[in-house]
Write a structure and sequence with these properties.
The complex is a heterodimer of chains A (177) and B (257). With 177 residues, chain A is α/β, with parallel strands linked by helices. Chain A has five helices and seven strands; from the N terminus they run ααββαβαβαβββ. Chain A has a four-stranded mixed β-sheet with strand order 4-7-6-5. Chain A is elongated, with a radius of gyration of 18 Å. Chain B has one domain (2-251): Ferritin, core subunit, four-helix bundle (Ferritin, Up-down Bundle), CATH 1.20.1260.10. Classes of the chains: A alpha/beta (177), B mainly alpha (257). At the A-B interface, helix 5 of A face helix 2 and helix 5 of B.
């Protein structure tokens, strides 16, 4: 595992490696690091002495019910490492998480587990092209692009439902957002 | 951040946050009632997901408000009497039928999109950041109800009649989304609200008029502005909903959730 942010600090690398072992609570095939929900990782001195480790958690959706679970799991995992005197996991909405933050490894793992990875949208997404985007999906089973959107809303906030017109499998796609 | 704000600005910001949160919270609860009984299975899933988004947005606004006023988000959400809620009168109505829900949602989603677009330019960074994030999510809601409006209007017959009648019933109360706030001058001065609500309402009317006219739906009279008590008037329907969504919290007041 290589930290997404270049660093030579062994402790920071250890933190990224630990976070990469925590599975996404809703799609366990990929880790929190692969999902792109980890922002900055920083060690800072505390006022009263000692050191604080701060990890920014960038929620996929504002109302994602898995946020609390992720926050607890990250905190427990890092505290168990005894790598800092205090661990703080803070929710951040800037930079906003977007589906483009899912790493190439994460996209491939999604596909292998039957989830079509999201269509890449670039930084200027404003929804104007949403209808076109929703029409694009590649079947994770047979690779066909001949798929029909069944429902832009799925079993969790971040998933849409499609039907592959070639292999006749229903499948889910991670929403482009 | 909250320590740096003058008291008058903080109060005005708190008022704005409460309106944003209450709009999403109350609408989220009304429309969550469609879970299991929407016109088709896909719509059960869609309305549940959309309602979950709205409750999630409400929670984020309540959290921001709680941080600002040294309060607790759950207390604000569930611990107030019905009279203390500040959602627009549009959200006083019950779920009613599907056409009513589509009419209300169509008007609300466009209003909310405009409001978020404005707040993305807010001088209050936590608000601007949240608005930017929510705006991306709301694109899915907007598209959904644009499609439904068209679908019911073009279906003709009872669907179209019910839609037109619902539009007529919600029109005046929808204006209340843009009812002026007590602290609005302060918010505008501080750049927290980058545009007056009245100006946002004008843009909103332009945006919703064209599609309604194109579908041949009667466009209700545009001149009447929001009622002065548009965010304070409460109804028996809302009092009932309040009794429902506070039921669990009231059952064990001292519990930690």
């Amino acid at each position: 595992m290589v930290a997404p942010v270049p660093t030579a600090d062994p402790r920071t690398l250890a933190v990224w490696a630990a976070l990469d072992e925590i599975a996404d609570p809703e799609i366990p095939a990929i880790s929190l690091v692969e999902l792109g929900v980890i922002g900055e990782v920083a060690f800072t001195p505390r006022d009263g002495g000692g050191e604080r480790l701060t990890v920014d958690l960038l929620p996929t959706f504002v109302g994602c019910p898995a946020i609390d679970v992720m926050q607890v799991q990250i905190g427990e995992r890092l505290r168990a490492m005894q790598i800092a005197d205090e661990v703080e996991v803070q929710l951040r909405f800037a930079p906003p998480w977007t589906s483009d933050r899912i790493t190439p490894d994460g996209r491939e793992k999604l596909r292998v587990s039957g989830f079509a990875p999201p269509v890449l949208i670039g930084p200027s997404f404003d929804g104007a092209e949403l209808q076109v985007l929703l029409g694009k999906a590649t079947c994770p089973y047979c690779g066909s692009r001949n798929a029909t959107l069944d429902n832009p809303f799925g079993p969790t906030l971040c998933r849409a439902i499609y039907h592959c017109d070639d292999c006749n499998q229903p499948f889910e796609q991670f929403k482009a957002i | 951040m909250s320590d740096e704000l003058p008291a008058a600005t903080r109060d005005a910001l708190a008022e704005l946050l409460l309106t944003l949160a209450d709009d999403e919270f109350v609408l989220g609860f009304w429309d969550s009632e469609w879970t299991g009984i929407a016109p088709m299975l896909e719509e059960d899933v869609a309305m549940s997901s959309i309602s979950q988004d709205e409750i999630g947005h409400a929670r984020a606004w309540y959290e921001l408000l709680a941080g600002l006023t040294d309060d607790d988000a759950d207390r604000i959400a569930f611990g107030r009497e019905p009279d203390a809620y500040r959602h627009a009168a549009l959200m006083n109505h019950p779920r009613t039928d599907w056409a009513f829900t589509v009419a209300r949602r169509y008007l609300y989603e466009h209003a909310d999109a405009l409001r978020l677009e404005a707040l993305m330019r807010s001088s209050y960074a936590p608000m601007a950041e949240l608005a930017a994030k929510m705006r991306r999510e709301e694109t899915y809601h907007l598209l959904h109800f644009d499609v439904w409006l068209k679908r019911l209007a073009e279906a003709g017959g009872e669907a179209r009649e019910r839609l037109a009648s619902a539009m007529d019933r919600v029109w005046a109360d929808a204006q209340a989304i843009f009812a002026p706030l007590e602290g609005e001058p302060v918010l505008l001065e501080a750049g927290i609200l980058p545009e007056p609500l009245a100006a946002l309402r004008t843009t909103w009317l332009e945006r919703v008029h064209a599609p309604l006219a194109a579908l041949g739906l009667p466009v209700p009279e545009a001149a009447s502005g929001p009622a002065a008590d548009g965010r304070r008037k409460r109804t028996d329907d809302f009092a009932w909903l309040h009794s429902q969504f506070t039921m669990v919290a009231r059952s064990e007041v001292a519990a930690t959730w």
